[in-house]
Amino acid sequence: MKEILIDTDYIKLDQFLKLVGLVQTGGQAKIIIDEGNIIVNDEVAFQRGKKIRKNDIVKIKDYGSFIIV
């Protein structure tokens, strides 16, 4: 599991996907999220603006797992 450091209270899910290099645009993030490929804390996330906070675990199908620190 890779650690991702954020220096704010939270990061939105679509911005997180850009941060880890999975997508380059919000449109690409929307497609991946809408397909149900993102799991946050053991629940499928369908909201682009979902707030990802420290200690959250994000799993991306065929890409890997991340913990926010």
What is the element layout, followed by pairings?
Blueprint: E1 2-4, E2 10-12, H1 13-19, H2 26-34, E3 38-40, E4 43-44, E5 51-53, E6 57-60, E7 64-68
Parallel strand pairs: 1-7
Antiparallel strand pairs: 2-5, 3-4, 3-6, 6-7
Helix pairs in contact: 1-2
Characterise this structure.
Keywords: RNA-binding. It holds the Pfam family S4_2. It comes from Tissierella praeacuta DSM 18095. A hairpin with a 2-residue loop joins strand 3 and strand 4. The protein is an alpha+beta fold. The protein has two helices and seven strands. It has a single domain, classed as Structural Genomics Hypothetical 15.5 Kd Protein In mrcA-pckA Intergenic Region, Chain A. The chain starts with a strand and ends with a strand.
